[in-house]
Amino acid sequence: MTIPPYLYPLAAPLLIPVARQLGRQLMSVMNGQRSTHASGSDLPSIPEKVKGDPRYVEALVEYSQRKETRLQEFNTLETTQEERRLQIRQQEINDRREISRLQREILRELQANEIQLKLHELDAIWNREKWFSNLSRQETERILLEGQEHHRLLMFMAPPDISEDCPLGMQRHLKKDIGNGLRRFLNQHYPQTSNMRPVEFYADYFTRSLGDIEVRKLQMVLSPVPTFILYSDINDYEVHFHVGFWGLQNQNVSLIPIQPWNWEKAQKELISQGLSPDLAIRQVRQLIVTIHQLLATFLIDWYYLSIDPHYQPHLYKLSSEFPRMWVKPYVSVLKDLQQQRRDIYRQELQIIVQNDSEQQQIKAKQNPQNWNAVLTLTGHSDVVNVIAISPDGQFIVSGGWDHKIKIWSVQSGQLIRNLKGHSNSITALAMTPDGQQIISGSVDSTIKIWSAKTGQLLETLQGHSYSVSALAVSPNAQFIVSGSWDNTIKIWSLATGELQKTLTGHTNSVNAITVDTDSELIYSGSVDNSINIWSLKTGKVEHTFEPFQTYKTVVISSDSRFVISGSWDNTIEIWSLKDGQLIQTLPGHDHDLLDLAVSPDSKFIASGSSDQTIKIWSLETGYLLRTLTGHFNSVNTLTFSSDGLCLASGSNNGVIMVWRCH
């Protein structure tokens, strides 16, 4: 039904300011901020996890090379060579489409991993909230499973909450009008089969109207899939439109209220033009449907443009579908965003190409390792605090906030057994050189010795008055050395479990312990920002130095030559243990640096961060060799295998990943 031109100005006061309002609030969501003043210039043009994928980097580098070649040829062509000019332009378009396709595929892979975790959690979430009984469990699982196969945007329309004071025509027909109108419109312009702008639309997923609380609950199960929800409530004179959203770069729910629209005023205007009350209400219903269509169009185009700088908003081609005065501000917002995204993309492309060139030079000189994720282990119900790998590389031991120690097969990823005995979080792990025994420390202040083969608890060592924060076993397998939040270091007999010595000297928690290869010296790092070198035989301090101002994590290389510290400014500092001199500072991560590990040959450093990445560095040169992506939460703990070819990492969401060097 065509909207009469005299109705255009009535909806304009709603739609014109809403364009800028939606643009600002959606950008704030993607930035992970609450501010409504965020701009597109604050947000990377490409999701960070895509930029770190080597396939994407390689594709961009090759694209940049082809683009430069095409540009040189294009500039030499005569104006009469129009056919060749058109071919070059088409080649550029094809290249951009291929990059967009690759980007969507990488996003799908990342999304698939997170969906798999969500499917494991679905039972617990569904049973915890009675509200989910209003939804189809089967359809919800189908939506998640489909997300593992295809990257697409979900669009839900919830039944409007219509007051009984509204005319019967509104009460009886508006729900179907909106659902049918949106379905027909989106199937035509944003079909699920589209390569560039696929949308899966649901008008009948919800059996009743929604409020903000229900939208937040839905996000609990569908958070891995980018989603918009349109919902509304209608009283006797106004329509209140609402938008709920979560996306890939920020999965937090954003609830965006839109200023109300006076439908009763529009009805009276129609009646004044000679329409009957029933026909006027029919026109108002159609007007509400069209508003939904315009909002949906803008939201979809905004989402795909926000993740893909090459995306061409489809609204540009739909001006005839809507009154021009309504469309103009939405087109303006999208064009501003498009220009911002392309400007940032060009800058990022230059940086990526330059960095790749530098990395290729480094690789040519160093022949660095190539790491790939080979296993994802799920089983902990809370944060994974510590990880150890057996000396033979056959199994992984993990400890977490759930008070449990788990033993996993490195070959199959299967959980071998659970070790239960600690009454609080596991904070330290070590293994004997022969791999036969596991040593664990906990917030419960105890140290426990377990049989790695049977899982039997062999001994409980008590002596610390606070959490055990660091453990090491001497290479000669005679001693356990423990560090604690009680500021002390204790030396225990591995054979008898008896306390041999208590070392005092640190004035704050001890968070790093290493025993040298000759089993003669103990190296300890403390929150008091000092490193002490002790005689294992006498228990006396032989040397102390304080190279740090402040740091969050510290590790000592296995050859006892270097101390590597993670500072509060998220940089990594490499110090000489011989003279305490700072050797070099590495740029580290953009977010909190949480843990460090050094390979057994003391050639490589691994760092984990709350930015959900792991970085591999050359200890000798300080060069960043690889950035590993795959975690979907902070990376808390890292450890290398004894041969340096395997790396295990633990995350805040209870997930462990195993990486293999090829």
Describe this structure in words.
- This protein has two domains: 346 residues, no CATH class; 294 residues, Methylamine Dehydrogenase, Chain H.
- The protein is an alpha+beta fold and 662 residues long.
- β34 and β35 form a beta hairpin.
Question: How many strand segments?
Answer: 35
Question: What sort of overall outline do the alpha carbons produce when their principal axes are compared?
Answer: elongated
Helical fraction equals: 25-40%
| Tally of discrete structural domains | 2
Give the rounded overall mean pLDDT: 87
Could you provide a short overview of the structure?
This protein has 662 residues and is α+β, with helices and mostly antiparallel strands. 34% of the residues lie in helices and 29% in strands.
Q: What labels describe this entry?
A:
single chain, 662 residues, Methylamine Dehydrogenase, Chain H, 7-stranded mixed beta sheet, 4-stranded antiparallel beta sheet, elongated
